């Protein structure tokens, strides 16, 4: 128990320091030495608790998803069925990810040299309060770090509602993931002159079109999703 308390305390010191540097200098300027100096420890001490700088940055980046997690239930409540709720959850995700592209790229695109699910489980073992108040279904989506699995995990309920066939779940999850990654890469690398609002709207449009192709013809009239915008 004492070791767990000590570990949680040290994590907070380093993650607080990392989050402050991200806010002040940007995520591209973060180093293990800067983090350790600000936390009041040496770099070697930091490595006793984090195997790699990318892991520490990953955990620090999680701090910046709080607003997304808090807003997600309200977005999903706007839907009247699983497909609509799934689309509104995508809108919430896109809104926040394009507002903070560097943060979300680290969490969902970068090579961490480790299994993201394990890192996320470690994070919430320390910051379990971040999940208090979330419905169990949303907790399971948050804890499933693999993006396409997160998507499939929720929309599979649409099979029972007879909106889609089970064999389409993986297609929907994979295609929409590629849509978001493609737009995020385009947006971050300035390959198109998109504002964040345009990037969100275009991504949602492509996600919507992708899922509608799989909706059973007699069920399409029951999808009344309306893009809310920012």
TrEMBL record:
Q: Which UniProt keywords apply?
A: DNA-binding
Pfam families in UniProt? TetR_N
User: Residue ranges of the HTH tetR-type domain?
Assistant: 8-68
Q: Is Nucleotide-binding there in the keyword field?
A: no
Task: Say yes or no: keyword Transferase present.
Answer: no
Q: Which domain of life is it from?
A: Bacteria
- Which residues does UniProt assign to DNA binding? 31-50
Q: What is this protein called?
A: HTH tetR-type domain-containing protein
Q: Which organism is it from?
A: Virgibacillus kapii
Q: What is the lineage of its organism?
A: Bacteria, Bacillati, Bacillota, Bacilli, Bacillales
């Amino acid at each position: 128990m004492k070791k767990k308390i000590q570990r949680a305390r040290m994590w907070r010191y380093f993650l607080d320091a990392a989050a402050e540097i991200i806010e002040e200098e940007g995520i591209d300027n973060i180093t293990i030495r800067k983090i350790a100096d600000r936390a009041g420890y040496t770099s070697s001490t930091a490595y006793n608790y984090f195997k790699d700088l990318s892991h520490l940055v990953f955990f620090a980046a999680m701090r910046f998803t709080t607003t997304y997690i808090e807003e997600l239930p309200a977005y999903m409540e706007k839907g009247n069925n699983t497909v609509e709720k799934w689309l509104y959850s995508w809108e919430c995700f896109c809104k926040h990810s394009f507002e903070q592209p560097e943060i979300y790229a680290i969490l969902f695109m970068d090579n961490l040299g480790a299994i993201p699910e394990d890192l996320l489980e470690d994070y919430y073992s320390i910051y379990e309060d971040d999940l208090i108040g979330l419905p169990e279904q949303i907790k399971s989506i948050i804890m499933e770090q693999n993006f396409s699995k997160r998507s499939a995990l929720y929309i599979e309920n649409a099979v029972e509602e007879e909106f889609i066939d089970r064999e389409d779940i993986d297609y929907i999850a994979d295609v929409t993931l590629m849509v978001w990654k493609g737009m995020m890469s385009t947006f971050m690398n300035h390959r198109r002159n998109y504002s964040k609002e345009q990037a969100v709207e275009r991504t949602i449009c492509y996600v919507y079109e992708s899922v509608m192709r799989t909706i059973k013809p007699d069920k399409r009239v029951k999808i009344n999703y309306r893009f809310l915008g920012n």
